[in-house]
Amino acid sequence: MSTYTEYLTIQTNKEKEIINITNKIQQAINKSKIKEGIILINSMHIISSVFINDEESGLKQDFLEWLEELAPYKPFPSPKGYHHHQTGEINGDAHLKRTIMGREVLCAITQGQLDFGPWEQIFYGEFDGQRPKKILIKIIGEK
Amino acid sequence: MSTYTEYLTIQTNKEKEIINITNKIQQAINKSKIKEGIILINSMHIISSVFINDEESGLKQDFLEWLEELAPYKPFPSPKGYHHHQTGEINGDAHLKRTIMGREVLCAITQGQLDFGPWEQIFYGEFDGQRPKKILIKIIGEK
Amino acid sequence: MSTYTEYLTIQTNKEKEIINITNKIQQAINKSKIKEGIILINSMHIISSVFINDEESGLKQDFLEWLEELAPYKPFPSPKGYHHHQTGEINGDAHLKRTIMGREVLCAITQGQLDFGPWEQIFYGEFDGQRPKKILIKIIGEK
Lengths: 143, 143, 143
Description:
The structure is a homotrimer.
Chain A: E1 2-10, E2 17-20, H1 22-32, E3 36-43, E4 48-53, H2 57-70, H3 92-101, E5 104-110, E6 113-114, E7 121-126, E8 133-142
Antiparallel strand pairs in A: 1-8, 2-7, 3-5, 3-8, 4-7, 5-6
């Protein structure tokens, strides 16, 4: 059994942004030389996500607009703001948005490749960005 | 360490449907002969889910109605439709519904069995079906 | 390759409550003596969650209020109650709330420690509690 650990650093241009990281994940698998196993990819922050969906610009916009409906930004101070904002933070919505989209994905590695369906792509979803953030990659399997 | 890979094919009768796949997953574990480890089960599509909940027909209906509230179907063309529909697709809602329900589950295998609580059952949740779809099973552990 | 299995029992004081279990998870890693690998932590019930976010009391309150908006409690009997309530259960909302928050988390173990970002903490989210509930811990990796 082999294990491999890598940390990606990402800084988004926008406060809220969805970035395709599939190529970087396949590169990590290549570096690990692991042929059969699994790969965990997770945000190391509690205001961003790693998730799998389709690479399509309209869909990425739909995700951001939909998340704004389900978990809206609320300015601070506000009588109807999030309790979390009493700490001085104003990113309560980012904690909730990340919850909808998920913290992590786990993927199969088969014959040294991400074992994916035809449309599966891996994304980093940032909800309070413009600062350097880390993504953890952990692979376990056999070379 | 041993690994085992299997692909299930499922075609639902309805466009949106929830199907219990627990028996098929336990059969894969039996075939793998792995006694201690973990099993990843994921949809290979970005419009369907694998998730764990209770086998109860009313609850399955609740899930579908609730998802329709949180991520409604929107006809195309429409001024308020999803951006994704500009590609010609009309399944924007399915991408969002699948996000709520999740892409994958990871389960423990103990003594050759799914290590489950009394009510845990594994489901495939289809949100744009009536076509053949694939579920990936990856097991890693010890025989 | 080594594996380690442990079951935690938790009984919340309140019907709906969020409890930090990070220390208990690190203790299980210590007991397992596994230095490199992964750890699965999942609720063994279909009305509660294991998830990762920030240890901040206001945020925990925000989560519970937000879940009540997205998946409200509905009394039984009611013409607009959940179908699930026809079984005699009245916890339909708990099944939906748990779905938003997730059943499980998978974390990396590096050098014998939870490989976490600065704010990551593991929580058990109970949505129909005041009874003993079980959390499964499964670790696989190398000592």
